[in-house]
């Protein structure tokens, strides 16, 4: 197999069988960038619900740069990995201040923007500027490992570099870069899937070395699963006689950075001390069932306590009393959104 065979097959297949109607399949680098950030660790079906709303609210880089962080986070609420939204906002400001509002058109300059790594920068270059740049996300790694029977430890830096070199060697001429790059994404997402790959429909069926060597089920190697640590949290659901709920804006770093949440404590004693300081009856509460919520690196076990119709507690920022209607304009963690939907707290 010549290296050009892979690119030729992929471009032809993408034209005939790939995805063509995704709303971000345009050349505008702002739109491409936004979709690439949203699609990190997130399925296309989920992004399809968020992307149009985000573009409507912030149709260009200037509008995003000038937006309030709370408004950006509110539109991102539920999409997860919230550092992406904060970096998106910071990067928009960088484009305005460092690049005079013009989106960078080289990988080197794009990688200077917050939240943009090598593969994301390469995708923007390929789709928007037809630059010969290689991408290497999880789907692409799987395709390359299987088609060329490349075996190695997925966390080994040398093997990672081998994959980058292979990805770069496969690049077609620049006039096909957009379709080629989209083809890689489509092939990994729809055909060469992690489990139950559709080999009979694959354009690489006749040249796939993993298929020939019966290695598809082994490649790429899976990362060793580590035990997921558990983190215990306590939530205080405090509502006042004005039908408002007490929220606190989380610090930018850590769990749910920049989002609005309930007063949250890692120790029950700290929660009790907070209640004492604000003259709330420690015995006048309703305890809800424990909530289990999985984050990337640990499992959260959250115990919520409800205190209703309390007298106004006078607190300063980052605390804020919020009525039920305005909750829709706040960026809330997913488990809190689910809790408020399931339980009547007002």
Number of domains: 2
CATH topology of the largest domain: Endonuclease III, domain 1
Helical content (DSSP H or I, runs of 4+) = 40-55%
Mean pLDDT, all residues: 94
CATH superfamily of the largest domain: Hypothetical protein, domain 2
Order of helices and strands: HHHHHHHHHHHHEEEEHEEEEH
Overall geometric form: elongated
How many H/I helices?
A: 14
Summary of the model, kept short:
The chain has 346 residues and is α+β, with helices and mostly antiparallel strands.
Description:
With about 350 residues, the protein is an alpha+beta fold. It folds into two domains: about 5-210, Endonuclease III, domain 1 (Orthogonal Bundle); about 230-340, Alpha-Beta Complex (Nucleoside Triphosphate Pyrophosphohydrolase), CATH 3.90.79. The protein contains 14 helices and eight strands. The strands form two sheets. Strands 1, 4, 5, 6 and 7 form a five-stranded mixed beta sheet that branches. A three-stranded antiparallel beta sheet has the order 3-2-8, with no helix packed on it. The termini are far apart.
Key terms for this structure?
346 residues, alpha+beta, Endonuclease III, domain 1, Nucleoside Triphosphate Pyrophosphohydrolase, 2 domains, 5-stranded mixed β-sheet, 3-stranded antiparallel β-sheet, 14 helices, 8 strands, 13% strand, elongated
């Amino acid at each position: 197999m010549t290296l050009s065979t892979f690119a030729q097959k992929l471009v032809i297949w993408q034209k005939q069988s790939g995805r063509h109607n995704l709303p971000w399949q345009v050349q505008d680098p702002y739109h491409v960038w936004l979709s690439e950030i949203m699609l990190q660790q997130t399925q296309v079906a989920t992004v399809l619900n968020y992307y149009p709303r985000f573009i409507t609210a912030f149709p260009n880089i200037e509008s995003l740069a000038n937006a309030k962080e709370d408004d950006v986070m509110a539109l991102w609420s539920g999409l997860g990995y919230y550092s992406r939204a904060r970096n998106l906002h910071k990067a928009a400001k960088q484009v305005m201040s460092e690049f005079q509002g013009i989106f960078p058109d080289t990988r080197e300059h794009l990688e200077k923007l917050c939240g943009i790594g090598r593969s994301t920068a390469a995708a923007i270059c390929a789709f928007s500027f037809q630059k010969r740049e290689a991408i290497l996300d999880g789907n692409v790694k799987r395709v390359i490992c299987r088609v060329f029977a490349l075996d190695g430890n997925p966390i080994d830096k040398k093997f990672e570099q081998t994959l980058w070199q292979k990805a770069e060697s496969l690049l077609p001429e620049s006039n096909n870069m957009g379709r080629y790059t989209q083809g890689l994404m489509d092939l990994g997402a729809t055909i060469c899937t992690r489990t139950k790959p559709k080999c009979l429909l694959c354009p690489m069926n006749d040249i796939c070395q993993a298929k020939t060597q019966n290695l598809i089920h082994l490649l790429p190697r899976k990362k060793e699963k580590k035990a997921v640590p558990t983190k215990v949290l306590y939530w205080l659901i405090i509502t006042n006689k004005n039908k408002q709920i007490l929220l606190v804006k989380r610090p930018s770093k850590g769990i749910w950075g920049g989002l609005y949440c309930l007063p949250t404590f890692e120790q029950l004693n700290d929660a009790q001390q907070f209640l004492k300081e604000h003259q709330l009856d420690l015995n006048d509460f309703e305890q809800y069932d424990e909530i289990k919520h999985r984050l990337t690196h640990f499992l959260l076990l959250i115990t919520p306590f409800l205190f209703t119709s309390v007298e106004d507690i006078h607190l300063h920022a980052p605390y804020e009393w919020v009525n039920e209607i305005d909750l829709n304009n706040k960026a809330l963690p997913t488990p809190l959104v689910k809790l408020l939907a399931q339980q009547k707290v007002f």
